[in-house]
Amino acid sequence: MRSPALRRLSIPLFVVLLWATPVLMHKAEAQPGAVFPETVIDVGAVNKGERASYEFTLQNDGDQVLQITQVKPSCGCTVAEYDKTIQPGGTGRITAVVDTTNFKGPIAKAVKVFTNDPVNPQINLVIKANIKTHVEIEPGYARFVAVHGEPNAKSVQNVWSKEKPDLKILGAKSPYPHVKVSYAEATADEREGDGSGNQWRILVELDADAPVGPMADYIDVTTDHPERQTIRIPVSGFVRPVLSVTPRVADFGRREVAEPQTASIEIRNMSKSAVDLDEVSTDVEGLQAEIEPLEEGRLYKILLTLEPGMKKGRFRGQITINTTSSKQPVLEVNVKGVVI
What percentage of the chain has pLDDT greater than the value 90? Predict the structure, then answer.
């Protein structure tokens, strides 16, 4: 049996431990909380060529500032704007826009949202839509991969409407002077699919002398369809030079020239006709250049050699290559480096 003294001490000790328990408990760490009331939205029917947009609402139900660290839309979708920070208990917005020009029928486009919420660091948002074409186009795009000076490249588009069998094309506008566009009613042999009514044939031609470089734009076609007065046909691709140089700059970097130092560039003929390299020269003193055929008429290597005793310091200049191509009779390649 406990002594009266022990009984008297046991009560205060219990009270002290009971009082201390909340102090000893670990306090939960404050953090943000990302909550989207809607993550998937269906905007319904959208006419092809129009922009489908939706503003997603984001709530912060945590007790720290919520940060949107990154937003990644999928192909064909863009994010017009979004709130980068949201205060505790506050609300933010993310506006996503889908360009329907290159789509038809049901689509679903996603947006990945990254936050500093440790529970929801990544949230996927989805916009669904049903793209109404009204006017059918096959194949619906014109893509060219051509070589400068080669015969005209062509792309054919067939256009018709199930809704409007008497569809008429009123005009067609090219975005480039070197891309010609013409149209006419398709003959029986030129028709696509099983549709009845008018069917049109649009011919897209790339000029042989189109400038070297990329293409990325739209051909605008005007029709008499009340819901689709303008059709946009993507035109894209690349016009290659007759002779391709790799690398485009001969860079020796930093070299000691106690012994000969070498580098090389490759010349590839992209055209159908054979092309020879006649002569190579350079304006850099102490640099020698020599032609080495790898495949006659198609592929060559230019061997470059820095000679011993070349003056120290930075050098820049050009390598000049004469060819038998009427479209590219002279190639000029930059060369640089530092002799140490």
Answer: 78
